[in-house]
Batch of 2 targets.
Target 1
Amino acid sequence: MKKLINAVDDVVKEQLEGMEMAHGDMLAVNYEPFFVYRKDAPVSGKVAVISGGGSGHEPMHGGFVGMGMLDAACPGAVFTSPTPDQMYEAAKKVNSGAGVLNLVKNYTGDVLNFETAAELAHGDGIPVQNILIDDDASVKDSLYTAGRRGVGTTVIAEKIVGGAAEDGYDLDKLADLARKVNMYGRSMGIALSGASVPGADKPLFELSDEEFEFGIGIHGEPGRVRQAMKSADEITEMMVAAILDDEAYTRTVREWDREKGEWEEKELTDEPFASGQDVILFVNSMGGTPVSELYAVYRKAAMILKDRGFNVVRNLVGPYITSLEMQGASITIVRADEEILKYWDAPVKTPGLRWGG
Amino acid sequence: MVTKEAVSKWLDAMTDIYLENQKYLTELDSAIGDGDHGNNMARGFKKVREKLPELQEKDIGGLLKGVGMTLMSTVGGASGPLYGTFYMRAGGAVDGKEELDLADVVALFDAGLGGVVSRGRAELGDKTMIDALTPAVEALKAAQEAGQSVEEALQAAAAAAEQGMKDTAPLQARKGRASYLGERSIGHQDPGSTSTYFMMKTASENLT
C-alpha cells in the first residue's frame, strides 16, 4: 500500500517530531516514553486532562493538546493502545497538584492500560480519575461484548471538559461533567472503503465498489450490516435514525475510589434522545472522505433533526477522529445544556481546534 | 526445588517460543482480533531477554516483577497489562525467594491468575487466556493435594492449559475486540489462551 512514510518503525516518532516543529508554540513532546504535552504544563491550580490511544486517528488526540482542551495525549503505535508508563509519566509531568482526569475510549487495551496507569499515579499521591467514553450506538449489547466503543463523543468531551478544567473545576466536578457528556452523546459510523496500517500488505477489511458497511468502528471493527451502496441522503437517514431511535443503554464502568484506593463498579444508564432537545451535531470524516461530502451529510442530518423537533445549537464538521485513509463518515449527536454549551464555546487553542480567546 | 537459574531458563525458553510462534499467534489473532498478538508478545519478550542479565540479580520475586514491568511498558494492547499484571502478582507471591518448592509454584501461578482476573474482569468461558490459565492452576492445586512432584504438577498444568486452549475454539467471545464478531468468533482458537499455553508448556519443560 502506498503511504508517505520513511520506515514503518519510525511512523509515530516522526509524526511527533513534525508536530513539535509545527506547533511548538502550543505543545512539546516527550520521546521516552511518548507523550505530547501542553507547553505551559503544569498549569497552576488546574486539573490536568489526559487522553490517549492508538495512533492513526489524527488530529485526535495529540492535535487537541493546548489551552482549553488536553494537557497531555499519549499515542500508542498505529491502532494499538499506549502503555501505562506513557500515561503515568504524562500525569507526573502535567499534574499541578489539582489532579489528573483521564478520558479513556472504551477499547479493552486502552481501558486496561489506563487503569494500570491510574493505579501508578495514585501510588505517587496524584489525585486521579478515569472516565470512560463509550458512545458507539452501533453496538447494541454490553453484556456479551466489550460494550460500546469510544468514538466521536471523545472529541466533544475533550473540548468541553478541557474548557471546564480551564475554568477551575475540581477533579470530582470535572469527572461528573465528563460522564454527563459521554452519557449525552451517541455516534454512528459508516465505511465506504477499508484502511491499511503502515507496513501491512492488505487493508484491515475490504469493501467492493457496490457496498458500504453500516456501524463500523474506527479500527475497522465490524459493523451491524453490509449493504448495497446508497445515496448520501439515504445513508445519512440510516445513521441519524440509529442514533435518535436508540434505546436506553446500560453498562457497568469502573471508576477509581481515591479514598479506598480501589476500583468501584458503577452501573450507568443513558436516556434516549427526546424531541425538543438542544443538540450539538458533529459530522466527521474517517480520513478518506472529503469535506465536501461531509456537508452533504450535514445538510441531510440537520434537516432530519429539525423535522424531528431537535434544535441544532452548535456543530462541528471535518476530519477530527479519523481512521487512517478509510473512506467513510460518522455522525455524533450530543444533547446540550447550559453547562455543556458554556464550555463548548469557551476559548480553545490547539493545532486541531481553535476559537475564541 | 526450582532454582532461580531454572526460572531464568523458563523466561528464555518463553522468548524463543514466542518468537518461533510470532506468525502463528498473529494468524490466530487476525481471524478474530486485530492481528497484533504475535508481534506484541515477541516485542515484549525480546525486551525481557535484553533485560534478563540485570533482572537476574534480584530474587525470584524481584525477577518476575521486573518481567511484569517490562511487559507492561512494551507489549501494549490488552495483553500488555494482562501479562504484566500476571508476572507482577506472581512475583509478589514469591518475594525474597531464591528457590521454590511446589507450594511456592502453586502460589506463584495462583496469584498471577488472580491478577489477570481482577485486571481483565473476564470469566471462565469468555474465550480469553483465563480459559487456559484457570484449568492449569486447578491442575497444580490437585497435584499438590495428591502429593506429586513439581515436575508432575507442571506437566499436568501444561496438559490442562492445552486442553483449555483447544476448548476455546467452540466458544463465542465475550471480551475484547473479538466480542463484536458475536457468533462469527465461534470456531477460532483464542490467541490469548494460546500464548498462555506456551507459558505453561515452557514452565513444565524448564521449572524442574
Target 2
Amino acid sequence: MSTPTMQPQIAPKAKPQVLKEDAMWLQKEMINRNYHELATAHQDGRKVSATFVPGNLNELLMCFNFARSLPETNALQNGMRKKSGKMIMDAERDGHSEDVCTYVKADLGMMLQGQVGPTGEPLPHPDVLLLSYTGCFTFMKWFELIRQKYNCETVMLHVPYQGDGKVSPAMRDYVVKQLKEKVIPTLEKVSGVKFDIDRLRQYMRESVKAEENLVRVLQSAKNRPSPIDGYFGAVYYIGPIFTAFRGMPEATRYYDTLWSEVEQRIREKKGPVTPEGEMAEEKYRLVVEGPPNWTSFRDFWKMFYDEGAVIVASTYAKVGGVYDFGFRHDAERPLESLAEYCLGCYTNLNFPQRIDMICKYLDEYQADGLLINSIKSCNSFSAGQLLMLREVEKRTGKPAAFIESDLVDPRYFSAANIKNRLESYFQMIKQKRVAQAAAGVH
Amino acid sequence: MNVKEIVARCEALFEDLRFNAVQQWKAALPGRKAIGYMPVYVPHEIIHAAGFLPVGIFGGGDQIEVIQGDAYYQSYICRIPRSTVELGLSGRLDCLDGMLFPSVCDVIRNLSGMWQIMFKDKYVRYIDVPQNYDDAIGGTFYISEMQHLRDDLGALRGQPITDAELNASIAVYNENRKAIRDLYSYRAQKPWQAPTSEVYLLLRAGCVLPPEEHTPLVRAYIAAADVEKRARRDNARVVMTGSFCEQPPLGLIKSIEMSGCYVVDDEFMLAFRWLMDEVPADGNPLEELSKAFLHRSAQSASKYDDKKEDKGRYLLHQVKSRGAEGVIFAAPSFCDPALLERPMLQEVLAKQKIPYTAFKYAENTGQMAPIREQAGTFADSIKLWSAA
C-alpha cells in the first residue's frame, strides 16, 4: 500500500493588515450601515430614493424620510470589491455599448445579477429617481435606463451648466422653480410626507458644521508635511458628506472626529496614513485632476506613497460640492442655497473655471505639479483635459503629466504603464528642482 | 437647374472645408458676420435676425487629416470635436465671428470652454436648452437664454435685435423648415427619385447658405428630382437613427443605399427640422420659439423624455408615418447620448416587432464593406420576413 506523499504544509499567505485612520473606519461603518438601511427599507416601511452625488439633495430627501441610494457609490463600492468587471460584461452582453460609462454598466449589471449590493445585502428597487442632472450628461440617460427597467417615478432637476463661468439669477431661479413645482411635489407624492421647510433648514444647519470641518481637513494639506492625502485619503473624507449623510448629526460627529485626528497630525508634523502605515517622507506634492480608479485603488495609491508622493489637492474631492471656495448651505434661503450648491459642483464649472481652480491649488498648496488621471468612462471630466494640461503648464510653469485608466472597468487599468509614467514624472520633477536650484545659485 | 447640377453644387459646398461660400457671403456687404453652431439645435432665427449668417459646423468629415486636433483628445473621445478643433486651429474657421455650442453632450459642452481659451478673440457661447418642458419653468429659463444670445448678438452688430426682425426671421425659417419637411415627405413617397445621399447633401448646403437661398434650392431639387427617370428597386425601407451629431461619411450613406435600403427618415442635421411645425411669426418671438421647442420639437437622445411612455415615440412615428420596415441604428463611436439611448429604443422596437440592426461609425470611417454587408443582410432579412 503506498503512502500518500506528504505535501509540505504551506501556511496560507497572511493578508497584510490594512491601516486606516479612526475616521476611515468610522466612515466605512457609516457606509455599511446605510447599505443595511437600504436593504431593510421596504420592510421597515420606508421609501427608497436614488440620486447622484454631484448636486445631491440629501437634506431635501431626508425631509421625506427616504432611505437614500447613490448609484455611483454603489458602482465604486462594487469596483473596490472587485465585483464590477463581471457586472460590466453582463451589461455589455445585454446590449450596452463597450464605449459608454462603466458606472452605468456596473449598475445595470448589478441589476441583472439580482440587485445585490456591495455589502452582500439586497438593494431595493428605488421608489423615486431624483435625476439631479448636474455636470454630467450621462446621468440623464442612466436614470432613463433605470426607469425603463423599474418603471419607477422619476423627477428631473435640470441644473444649467456654467457656460459663462458664473451663475446667473435666471439659472438659479430655474432650479428653484423646479424644486418648488416639480421635485418637492413629487417627493411628497411618493413618500406621503408633507414638506416642512423648517425641517430642511435644520438639516442644512447641520450640514454647515460638517462642511466647515471638511474644508479644514482638505486645507490642512497646505502644511508641510501634509497630514492627509487630498485624493486617495480624501475619498474617505468626502464619503459621508457627498452621500447619504450630509445634514445628519452622524456626519457632524464624523467630521469632528476626523478634524481632531488631522489637527493632531499637524501638531505632530506627521504625514498621511496610507494602507501600509504612516508615510515617512514627503518627497513630492501633487495636485490631481480626475476621479480615481476604483478596481485597483490600493495598488494605484501604493504607486504614489512608495515614491513619497502625496496628493495635496484634487478636483475629484470637489465633485459633490466645492466648499473650499466658500460655499455653505444657507438655512436662511434654503431652496436658493440648494440651487447654488448644485450649480457650483465641480463638473458643472466651465473649462476656464476648472483651470483657474487647478492653478490656484498648485500655488496655494505649493505643489510640484499636476497629474491628470483621465478616465475613459467620464467625458464630463475627461474631454479637453489635454488642453487643461497645456494651459496649467503654461500658466504655472509647473510640470504636468497624463495617465489613463477607468472608474470601475478593470480592463482599463494597466498598472505597468501607469507606474512607468509616474516614475518618469517624478524624475521630471526632480530634474526641474535641480535646474531651479542651479538657476537660484547663479 | 437639373438634379445633377443641384447635387453638384451642394457637393461642392459640402466638400469645401475652407467655407468659401461663407467668406463670399461676408464679402458681399461690409459689416456682415457669420456665427457657427454645432449640433444638435440652436435657434437660428436669432442669428439671422441680427443679419448674421448661421453656419453649421458638423466636423471635418472624412476629407480632413486631423493632426492638431488629435493632440487635444484621448482615443476614447468621439471624432467630431477633434476635427472641429482641427478646422479651428488650421484657420478654416477664421471666417466665423463666433461659435455656439448647444447642450448635446459633455464633449461638446466642454468644447465650449476650450474654444473660449483657444479663440479668445471670437464670440463663444454655450447654449443651454431646458430639460423641463413647462412654459413657466423650462420656458422661462429658455427665453432668458435666448434673450442673452439676442443681447450678445445685438451688441456684436452694434444695434439691438428688434421683435420685428425676429418675427421676420421666424417667417424665413418657417419657409425653410416647410421646404425640408416637403423634401422628407417626397423622399418617403419616392425614395428612388430622391436618394438620401442627395437629400443629405441638400441639407448640408443649408449649413453654409442663407435660408433665403437654401429654401428655393430645396424646392428646385424636389421639382427636378420628380422629372428624373430613375429605376425603382425592391429595397427595404428603413429609418436611420443615432446620427444627430457627428455625421457619417457620405460614402456610408451611399453604401447603405447600395446595399438595398431606402432611407425614408433619419436624424441627420436635426437643426433644420427640430421645430416640427410652423412657429407663429406675429407674436412674442422668443415666447413662440420657446413654445415650439418645448412642445413641438423633435425627440433626440440629447433630450430628456419626461415619461417612460415617451421613449421611442418619435422613432415609432418616423417608422409608421414613413412606412418603414426596419431601423438602422448608426451611432458614432463613443457617442454617449446615442449609445446610451440605443438599448431603450431597441426595446421599444422589439415590443412592436420592428426589426433593427446596429453599427457604429466615425466621420472618417473608410471601410464600407462590413457596413454594406450588414445593411444588405438586414435588407434581405426584411424582405424575407415580409414575404413570409
